[in-house]
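This section describes the prediction task in plain terms. A model, or a person checking by hand, is given the sequence of a single protein chain and must write out its three-dimensional structure as a string of tokens. No templates, partner chains or ligands are provided. The sample shown here is typical of the held-out split.
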Amino acid sequence: MRLALRRVLLPLVLLSTGCASDPPPPRPGPVAAPENAGAAVLPARAEPTSGARVAIDAGADAEAPVAKDAKGARPRLGSIGYTTWIVSDKLAKNRIGQVRPGTTIPLRSEAPVELPRRSDHGRCKSGRLYEVEPRGYVCEDDTVTRDLEGPLFRALAFAAPREGARPYDYAFTTRAPMYGKLPTEKEQRRAERRMWPIEKLAKVRRSTDGHEDLDELTPPKPTGPMPDFLAQNPELPLPIGRREGLVRKEIPYGSMLSFSHSFDAGGRTFLLSPDLTLVPADRVRPFRPSSFRGVPIDEAHPLPLGWFRKKPRPRYRRDERGSFVETGEPWAPRTFVGLTGKKVEHDGDLFWETREPGPIYARARDVSIVREPEEMPDVVAPDEKWIDVSLGGGTLTLFEGKRAVYSTLMSPGAGGVTQDPKMKTEELVRAALTPLGRYRIAVKYRATQLTDEATPDPTSFWISDVPWVQYFRNPFAIHAAYWHEDFGSPKSGGCINLSPEDAMHVFGWTEPHVPEGWASVEARRDALGTWIVIRK
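The expected answer:
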């Protein structure tokens, strides 16, 4: 079943389940965009990595000390709720980024700016805004903290994302409670009495839509001791904007969970999610990391080169009669080979000469060729960065002018190669197609939740903490896919799927740059996003 992306332009939420890949069996998911999206989306919450794990408390006295960074040089402001917005001016009208709960952003001064007139408060009801680095303001509201050692911020910081391509561990869920406290055995039995018995979960059907390509039946094991804040109090702190209760909500079958830690409590392993809930490990199927990544284009690996995609492909050599025969040592899926640029036609087949000694040949229909463009796209300046995407070839290549610097495989929409560049967004979404055309990166998120619900706290379906998201045309984005590694083949609901390693590399290379402590950033007129050129 293909993931159907409803065209829903919802304010304040990042929508893109449909981009993620083919749908989970229980419900197809869509994509939607929030306000200020322009050509792309600005979701209500983004889930990024970020700065020092100290912070400040909305209810604290105005004279309370401000959190400092590791060197004590700069004051910092912390987030404890959804959503901490970064705005462009004191009227707080234009949202230009976000701060993730449990992380901090550097301030330009310790004291907030006070707006004297209530009519000037705009979206910031307190009338007090902190000026943040390198630009913009954050309202002093209940999502920020000035308490350096407050239990809520410390817990959120403990569950904050780590450095690297996978900021969290991830799992496919078979339906599970998200506990707001460390439950007793009796509470567990009561909360889970209508769910599948643990011993039968291995028999629950596996998804055939691509969302379980990398998951495993063995539950996650404990990776460390119980967090100190749980050992002292079985009740988990409640982030601003989240619901209370023994079971704060259930994560449905088909949704995907991110978790920072796993530990044993009473003989059962629990997973700590970033929103400070506990999920039983025996009710999820963890995703193993993909090892796939692309290749830098340099003297060791110049263009042209050829990528092999889903299947092993034979190597060929020429015999004494000039015929092409298989060597018996095929190229593995998702590998590449350097090409000399020479082609030979034989018996109706075309072969590329590779740089492997012999010489060794690759059959043209087995490889996706990446080469220097004969002409630059007319929208791109001579030395400007741009991204070339070939839907038919399943490749994504980074260029600086005509010079390629990196190449990899990507997964476009599961509907195949888009034929009409004038297709409307609704048509693309229905057909799970990736749009053709030229676009600039408009909004970037270090990581974010993908859902079709107009809330930062969905209940029906969501994909947690998808890393390295870059929107170029609402609702389409480049992003990591941690649930499959079928890169090079059509797979998504319309977005461009990359491996986490590749997505992180591309994210760091493109503009606009995401400043320290920011979860997301929107392109501006004086800091335009990188061009992406999508062709057949």
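For orientation: The longest helix spans residues 500-509.
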